[in-house]
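Worked problem 6 (solution included).
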Amino acid sequence: MCGIAGVWGKTNDDTMDAMLKKIKHRGPDEQDRAMRNQYTIGHNRLSIIDIQGGRQPISNEDDSLQLIFNGEIYNHQTIKKSLPEHTFKTKTDSEAIIHLYEQKGKDAVRDLDGMFAFALCSEDDIFMARDPLGIKPLYYGYKDQDLYFSSEIKSLLHATRGIREFPAGHYYSKKTGLKRYYSLPEIPAAFKQDIHRIVAITRKRLERAVTKRLMSDAPLGVFLSGGLDSSMVSSIARKHTCGKLHSFSVGTADSADIFYSKKMAKILGTEHHVYHYGPKEIIKVLPEVIYYLESYDAALVRSAIPTYFVSKMAKDYVKVVLSGEGADELFGGYHYLKTVNKTSSMLHDELLHITENLHNTNLQRADRMTMAHSIEARVPFLDTSVIGAAMDISPALKIYADTNGGKMIEKWILRRVAESYLPKDFIWRKKEKFAVGSGTAQVLEAHARAVISDKEFEKRHNFPEANIRSKEDMLYFNIFRHYYGAEKVLSTVGRSRSLNPGVIN
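Solution. The predicted structure is:
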């Protein structure tokens, strides 16, 4: 996990220094760069795989290609074995990308199993790519004819005219332009209804997804809120981990997350760490959270606060954490989805939409808050094999109408999968959003009402393109605008559905 930055064209040391300095938190272990006639690329490294030998930029055998890479390639060992004609000078996953590209060109990106954003440069071309879901961030902009790019928006603010998000599941080169290489699965001809088969397939793919993400030469742990998703991931990780496994949870003193996480940690036998925070701390860190988050979306800011605190605590023990992001989008975990459960196709379309937009909603939160504290988050539910299985499942099994009590049960089929891992009282308890379960949402909502007057809220009309929907949005937008302005970056800001279901078309 790292921070990357570069220029295809002319630049100077001062510009590159400034770009790399802004994303130093993403990789505090090492910094290096490569300068050639046509390009300059730089890298801040968080050392996780091949800690001693994985310095970047990294080159091929004859130094004609230079790579900067952010992410993890879980099948890098398999890729290396398929390329016996190449000499590998490190044990890193990044070197596999270079030699695979030499063999397959742009199609190499289709063979990469992992999360990634990278730039591969030669004197006559640049090849950039981002992983299928956009787990790892990448932004770009232009100054004159020169292409600037970086892992975070803040790194580009003073270098380019405008800033755009490099789309998930795409690659780019000068020769091909921007091309899509991955799309979420299309709606199946017939949704799978066989519950026993669905449970078996989902369980097998999720086990494999968690297991491959245990790959690390640095200490690894789990975020454990005590909810369904994090408890499932933690249970599987515990099953496949020898020795100590650290787990982490945060919240206000009387929050549900603290209570349930302690119970689950005891059941799993993890080395559990808890941090309590109060209203004063929440309000104090709000500007810093928005600075690192690079968004003012109310749902994201709410959940970013506990993610910020849990990441801050975890950095003292681990460099890698596993998290439950993606389960709500794939399996129907949000309460508002019960209101769109009119037909299977409508619910499927909504789940597809929010999954497609994870790159600048919950995935952005998970990446920015962990990287603000120089740790790497991995998200097993968003393995492409798990996504494929989830998209085939009948939506009626995700938001399930209980024939006994008439209740709509969110994530019903995932709860059935969880029966192999968790006690029943954890599986079937009511879903609570991270910000609510941790006690954060209630504090922030009250704070926004107190500091944003009706007159101040009317100023939202001065920024129609910002789509400010509430006093919370207004509070966060004012802080965001202080750091980022507006004109350059508004197109990069994602908007969550879960607080505002009325925006569904």
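Discussion: Residues 501-505 have pLDDT under 50 and may be disordered.
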